[in-house]
Design goal:
Blueprint lengths: L1 H25 L9 H10 L3 H6 L1 H16 L4 H6 L1 H12 L8 H41 L2 H12 L4 H38 L14 H5 L49
Helix pairs in contact: 1-9, 2-4, 2-7, 4-6, 6-7
């Protein structure tokens, strides 16, 4: 069971490590002169109470733009794509029309606003340069010979996305670990059932001769009760072999003979 837990932990660790590696690759933004996230936050921290209450651009910056771009890990396209809220909110502090905006807030908003434009201009040039390079490369590839076009298409086809492949491998490892664990648990349950069937006593042994009462051997036939009446006169009981004589019955067909007087013998 311990090896199954180790295998499952290894699969989970591999999945977490893979996702962390993919996330780290996703947040490698192009190199810019300064950090766009820090520039926008510098403008947001310099918002004065009048601008926070009256400027819809400042309200949109703090409630919509900053949370959205932070969820995207500081994507430069998100910051530069929301140019207007940052630009007009910074102008509210850099050119205040009230006496509640402090000089420090004005200076911070102005510096953050300027750095924001520098970084977004560099990002725009980078995007435009990449697009122009891509378009020129595509034009050259279409105007070149057939073998060159085939080689370019083959190199583009060889770029297999890493994320789905790694996800499939990790999913396969986790699925294999679950299948092995289920088989192991089934083997344990079957082994317990086999042991239970070997120990269970047989129902036939309870009615065998070993469990019969000794009284059954001493009295194989039912005994007569003690109040059983004795045998009639002249009857031989199978339980008592002693013969009890009774009066002889009279024969009604033989009548008694009368005795005649004898005459005396004369000498």
């Amino acid at each position: 069971m311990l090896w199954f837990l180790h295998l499952l932990n290894a699969a989970v660790y591999a999945s977490v490590a893979t996702s962390a590696a993919l996330n780290s690759r996703q947040i490698q933004w192009p190199s810019l002169p300064n950090n766009l996230t820090a520039d926008v936050l510098q403008v947001a921290f310099a918002i004065s109470p009048p601008c926070a209450a009256n400027s819809t651009w400042c309200q949109q910056l703090t409630s919509v733009v900053i949370p959205r771009c932070e969820r995207l890990r500081g994507d430069p396209g998100c910051w530069c794509g929301n140019h207007d809220p940052v630009h007009y909110c910074a102008i509210c502090m850099s050119s205040p029309t009230d006496n509640q905006t402090t000089p420090d807030q004005t200076q911070a908003a102005t510096a953050g606003h300027a750095a924001f434009h520098v970084a977004c201009n560099a990002y725009e040039e980078l995007i435009n340069g990449t697009a122009s390079t891509t378009s020129s490369t595509s034009m050259l590839s279409t105007s070149s010979q057939a073998p060159t076009a085939t080689a370019v298409s083959a190199s583009s086809d060889n770029k297999v996305p890493i994320g789905p492949v790694v996800g499939g491998v990790v999913g396969g490892v986790v699925g294999l670990a679950l299948v092995v664990g289920i088989i192991y648990l089934l083997a344990i349950v079957l082994k317990k059932n086999d042991r239970g069937s070997d120990v269970r006593p047989s129902s036939v042994s309870y009615i065998s001769s070993e469990h019969k009462s000794p009284n059954l051997y001493a009295h194989p036939y039912p005994q007569l009760p003690a109040s059983y009446p004795g045998p009639a006169p002249g009857h031989i009981s199978p339980h008592n072999s002693t013969y009890v004589p009774g009066p002889e019955p009279m024969n009604p067909m033989i009548a008694p003979q009368p005795q005649h007087p004898t005459s005396p013998i004369q000498n």
